[in-house]
Design brief:
Radius of gyration: 30 Å
CATH class of the largest domain: Alpha Beta
Number of domains: 4
Structural class: alpha+beta
Strand content: 5-15%
Order of helices and strands: EHEHEHEEHHHHEEEHHHHHHHHHHHHHHH
CATH topology of the largest domain: BirA Bifunctional Protein, domain 2
Mean pLDDT: 89
Distance between the termini: 74 Å
Largest sheet: 5 strands, antiparallel
Helix content: 40-55%
Strand order of the largest sheet: 1-3-5-4-2
CATH architecture of the largest domain: 2-Layer Sandwich
């Protein structure tokens, strides 16, 4: 249940006309009163002898207790209370009780016999509106300080009492929601999202991996936004506003939004923190080889995500908050550059993660360089193909990001960041779907290779798993993905690794028993650790990097048999 305190107004009759009207799109059905301050207020919705002005006059009577100079300029208090889409339809009596609890909790009518006059109007199945006059019966002003937070707290109790969908408590760090006027305007212009939401998405994607202020503004311009900079006398940029070219006000002028009005971390000072280089608590990073394409960038992102996991496990809160914020940039960059069959779910993950990337714990910038560089590499490497090494490394990156997002959810939950934790879990579900699309082809190829392995080799690698992972072996061997893991183990042995030792190390990097597909997780860890191509068909990549081409299952069986016979003869 979501209560919302709207901006105070000065026109009681105007708000009543809206509440009892048909709505901007005929969406108001059977507007009627469900409760009022004395349960005796006239209802212009169902009593034809009563007008909206009659109800307005009754609500505003306490204003007469004050002299002209004492009356508040904005005396109209307005609160809407909306049920979740999956909640049952509540009766008028239930909504009436909810309205009484809300006005009591917010201080509008605390139950002392001299509260404000109010009325609750229902014009749809899933919500009510409460209108009140902000002058008590004794002429004093009500104590409704922080009424929004008080309404939210009461909503959590109402959810429990009526067995309704539980909404996670907020902490004031969420981006500002679009206003009703913005939503109605978007509907009139057949927009799926409001301009505020579209701008927030575009600005967030533009800052992902940007290395400087000028690059950030260049990306905004390339995205087609109108930009205004606020310039100091010194010539420095103090702030910025952006607008969509086709979003105009009544005068035909573009509607601009400042970064801080889009999201708390999109103001220019907060964005500049991302470019702050701090050396305290950080170590010198060795020079990395240049990124040569989308697949290379995705491998780099996988490594950076693994490093971020270690920070979340062992770092302080400021460093962890920086990793989480930078993870959002990687998700944005990955979504922007991925192929069509994964792009939709990755964009949904990036959009949702925006809520999980902020909390009251301030990010200690400078600790997030690896992730921010990974985001930059993804953007500059260009669009990835939907096949081959590009697609397979996308699956590899998503697999690691899934663990990173899960760790983020657990960290938020431990610190009582309810909305952020809940959002991170939703992001993980989007990543799960994207992973399945990206991994289908490479895992399918490995699966077929594993099934073609000679029975003696299959028994050999089963023994390897039992030796390396005795507690998980039977579960892994029963998974549909086991053949793909067996095929990967043959490749690790072909390029010179001890499969038992490598598998033990891969499983020890981080817990795997909570994964839905343990064999898949181990496939990607082994391929990353052994520097195998993510795409098992990419033999050319192996040869170009100076590694022997991976043998066929038949060749592997022959080589293994020869080595086994040779060792027996030596014994």
């Amino acid at each position: 249940m979501i209560p919302r305190i709207h901006q105070q107004g000065s026109n009681t009759l105007g708000l009543l006309h809206y509440l009892y009207g048909k709505g901007t799109h005929e969406e108001h059905v059977d507007p009627h009163l469900v409760a009022s301050f004395d349960d005796m207020a006239p209802d212009p919705g169902r009593d034809p002898s009563v007008t909206k002005k009659d109800l307005q006059h009754l609500l505003d009577q306490p204003l007469a207790l004050l002299g002209p100079g004492q009356r508040p300029d904005k005396h109209v208090w307005h609160c809407s209370v909306r049920a979740a889409p999956d909640d049952p339809i509540l009766s008028d009596e239930q909504w009436a009780e909810i309205a009484r609890r809300m006005v009591a909790a917010t201080g509008i009518d605390p139950g002392d016999g001299a509260g404000c006059r109010w009325a609750a109007v229902r014009h749809a199945e899933d919500h009510i509106h409460i209108i009140a006059t902000l002058v008590r019966e004794d002429g004093r002003r009500p104590d409704h300080h922080r009424s929004g937070k008080r309404a939210q707290a009461e909503a959590r109790l109402i959810e429990a009492a009526y067995n309704l969908h539980h909404v996670a408590a907020g902490d004031g760090t969420a981006a500002k929601r679009p206003t009703s006027a913005e939503r109605h305007k978007a509907d009139r212009h057949n927009r799926q999202h409001t301009p505020r939401e579209e701008l927030r998405e575009t600005v967030r994607r533009s800052v992902a991996g940007a290395a400087s202020e000028e690059e950030f503004f260049d990306r905004l311009a390339a995205a087609g936004l109108l930009i205004r900079r606020r310039i100091a006398p010194s010539g420095d940029t103090l702030g910025y506003t952006v607008a969509l070219p086709d979003d105009r006000n009544g005068k035909g002028e573009p509607v601009f939004y400042s970064g801080s009005k889009l999201a708390p971390d999109l103001s220019l000072p907060r964005i500049r923190e991302r470019w702050t280089q701090t050396s305290e608590g950080t170590t010198h990073q060795p020079a990395l080889p240049p990124v040569t394409g989308p697949a290379s960038a995705r491998r780099r992102a996988t490594t950076a995500a693994w490093q971020a996991l270690l920070v979340i496990d062992h770092g302080d809160d400021g460093a962890i908050a920086a990793q989480i914020a930078a993870t959002g940039e990687v998700l944005d960059a990955l979504a922007k550059t991925s192929a069509a069959h994964t792009r939709h779910e990755l964009q949904a993950a990036a959009t949702s993660f925006e809520r999980a990337s902020r909390s009251h714990i301030r990010a200690a910038r400078g600790h997030d360089r690896a992730l921010r560089q990974a985001a930059r590499d993804l953007v500059h490497s260009g669009p990835a193909l939907g096949r081959g090494e590009d697609s397979a490394t996308t699956a590899m990156a998503i697999d690691m990001l899934f663990f990173l997002i899960t760790a983020t959810a657990h960290w938020h939950a431990r610190r009582q960041h309810a909305q952020q934790a809940e959002t991170a879990h939703r992001v993980a579900e989007h990543l799960r779907v994207a992973y399945q699309a990206a991994a289908e082809q490479p895992i399918g190829v490995l699966h077929q290779r594993g099934r073609r392995l000679a029975p003696s080799l299959q028994r050999h690698y089963s023994a390897v798993v039992r030796q390396a992972l005795p507690d998980l072996a039977e579960q892994i061997l029963a998974e549909p993905g086991w053949p793909a893991l067996a095929a990967t183990l043959t490749e690790t042995q072909t390029v010179g690794h001890d499969p038992t030792a490598l598998l033990t190390k891969a499983a020890a990097q981080r817990e795997v028993d909570t994964a839905e597909r343990i064999s898949d997780v181990l496939v990607w860890r082994l391929r990353r650790m052994a520097d195998l191509p993510a795409d098992p068909q990419n033999a050319q990549s192996q040869q170009s990097q100076g590694r022997p081409a991976v043998s066929s299952p038949e060749q592997v069986a022959q080589n293994w048999a020869k080595s086994t016979n040779g060792s027996q003869r030596r014994r």
